[in-house]
Structure formats: structure tokens, C-alpha cells
Write a structure and sequence with these properties.
Alpha-Beta Plaits; 2 domains; four-stranded antiparallel beta sheet; elongated
Length: 238
């Protein structure tokens, strides 16, 4: 008569090892994210790795390699939705892309673990840690190199802060000033800044501009009584 705690089968032991590997490697990835105070930290990275490992292992247990292959495809797309949750857009800036990519890689670590490929899972983990740490000094070095606006393809935007009731007038004025400077406007948008003020943002169709031209436009706009603040920004392309 079997006892209350049956001896685990070899398959169950294998699953436990896979989950343990995913937990350990996910912890390594998550510690680095937690140290840098990212929105998705230690627990998130561990849970992503564990979840991916569990689903892939389940697919293998049920239908072998074919089942694992199907599950991996769903894991890849599912983690994409999860990663989208940590990406935030603030004006012209986008934050959280690196964290989302790290979660995607944590899922890959879990998938390797669940597919009984622990060595490959370790390789991916080392690559992720190297990308998030060893490449940081190189990124900082590149960021300190001045951008030549006249030779760089980029997206340019001019922004004015005005009272909410003058948003329409400010938009017309912004487009008029930019077109007078030979910089056609591709699109405009209005974003609420507070209860009584808004930001009117015009995105240029030109991919290269002269900084002094936009400086002159901004200086001219700030002379208007309804304009509380004017500025321009650039976001480089790929």
C-alpha cells in the first residue's frame, strides 16, 4: 500500500532540477536589475524564468520535444506582452526598453532550463549580465560624444507650454513659425501638463536641422505673452 509521501519519479526529479536552475539563474539576472532600482526587479526576473521553465518542462512531459517547441513559441509572444507593461513613454523619451529586453532574456533562460539545457541557460545568463554591466561604460562613453545634428538622422520636436484655453492659437503659431523657418511640421499633439496648462508639441518632417534655426524659433516663441515656456528636443534614430 503506497504511503502518504510517494518517492518522486525520475521525471519529477528532473523537473525539480530544471526549476531550481531557472530559479538560480533568474536570481542572478534579477539581482542586477534590483540593484539598479528598475521597475522589474528580482522577483519579476525570477518569476519570468520560473514560469518559462515550468511551461516548457510541462510541454516536454506531455508530448516530448514537439510539445516543448509549441510552448516555447507561446512563451516568446507572451513575454512580449509582459515586457510592454514596463515600457513607459514620457514626451519624446521612452523608458524601460532595456528592462523589457532583460525580461525577455530571463524567459529564454527559463526556456533553456525547462528544456533540460542548463549549460546553455548559463551561457545566456552570462551574456545578459555582461550586456547590462560590462557594456555600461561603453554606452556612457558613446553618450558623451557630441551629436552632429547636421549629419544625424533624428526626430525633432518643438514644444511650447501655454494656458489650456490658448492651445489652438499656440498650435497655429507654432506651425507658422516653423514653416517660416523652412521646417515643415509633420504632426502636432497637445498634452495636459496640469489643470490649467498644456504642452503643444510639433514634430518636424525634416530629419536634419540646424540647431541655431530652432534656437531662433524658440526664442521668438518665448516673446509671445501666452507662451510660458518653449524648447526643442531631438531623438536620434537607429
Amino acid at each position: 500500500m503506497p504511503g502518504p509521501f510517494p518517492f518522486p519519479t525520475p521525471e519529477a526529479v528532473n523537473s525539480g532540477i530544471s526549476l531550481a536552475v531557472a530559479f538560480g539563474l533568474g536570481t542572478l539576472i534579477g539581482v542586477e536589475r534590483q540593484y539598479r532600482q528598475r521597475s522589474a526587479g528580482l522577483r519579476t526576473a525570477v518569476l519570468v524564468a520560473l514560469g518559462a521553465a515550468a511551461f516548457v518542462d510541462l510541454g516536454m512531459r506531455l508530448t516530448g520535444g514537439e510539445g516543448a517547441t509549441r510552448v516555447v513559441a507561446y512563451v516568446v509572444s507572451g513575454i512580449g506582452f509582459l515586457g510592454a507593461g514596463v515600457i513607459m513613454k514620457e514626451g519624446m523619451n521612452v523608458r524601460g526598453l532595456n528592462t523589457a529586453a532583460t525580461l525577455w532574456c530571463a524567459a529564454a533562460v527559463g526556456a533553456f532550463s525547462g528544456a533540460d539545457l542548463p549549460l546553455e541557460a548559463c551561457f545566456v545568463t552570462l551574456a545578459v549580465l555582461a550586456g547590462n554591466t560590462l557594456l555600461r561604460p561603453l554606452v556612457n562613453l558613446i553618450d558623451r560624444i557630441p551629436i552632429d545634428e547636421s549629419a544625424t538622422e533624428a526626430t525633432y520636436a518643438v514644444q511650447v507650454t501655454v494656458p489650456a484655453e490658448t492651445a489652438g492659437l499656440a498650435r497655429d503659431l507654432l506651425v507658422e513659425r516653423l514653416e517660416a523657418a523652412d521646417y515643415p511640421v509633420g504632426s502636432t499633439e497637445v498634452e495636459e501638463r496640469g489643470e490649467t496648462t498644456v504642452d503643444v508639441i510639433a514634430t518636424l518632417t525634416a530629419t536634419t536641422v540646424h540647431a541655431k534655426d530652432l534656437d531662433a524659433v524658440v526664442a521668438d516663441l518665448e516673446k509671445r505673452p501666452e507662451v510660458r515656456h518653449a524648447t526643442w528636443s531631438v531623438q536620434t534614430g537607429d
